[in-house]
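can u do me a favor
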């Protein structure tokens, strides 16, 4: 999505900043109007967005990022992520309390 936004911004900047004159501006504007209303282009854009989302989700999964962008803590394959409760204790999916993390800074 960021690339699409960049390209749209770049195109708008080019159109607004072009010194080619009104004729070139109108030519670019007409091409843009035709392109944005083209169902084939919209379909390609949708497929590209879906592929980009898939790649992003795959990359997040590889580096251990959850859907919210937080790192999930797992102890191995097939394990359940642990969540920190409001009191600061870490609990597993079975709600068994775990000791609080060591914050003394010792090794």
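np, heres the sequence
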């Amino acid at each position: 999505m960021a690339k699409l936004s960049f390209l749209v911004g770049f195109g708008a900047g080019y159109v607004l900043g072009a010194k080619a004159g009104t004729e070139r501006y109108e030519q670019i504007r007409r091409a843009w109007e035709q392109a944005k209303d083209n169902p084939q282009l919209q379909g390609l854009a949708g497929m590209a967005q879906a592929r980009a989302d898939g790649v992003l989700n795959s990359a997040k999964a590889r580096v251990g990022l959850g859907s919210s962008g937080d790192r999930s803590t797992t102890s191995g394959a097939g394990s359940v992520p642990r969540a920190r409760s409001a009191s600061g204790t870490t609990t597993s999916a079975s709600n068994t309390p775990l000791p609080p993390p060591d914050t003394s800074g010792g090794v």
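Residues 70-76 have pLDDT under 50 and may be disordered. hope that helps!!
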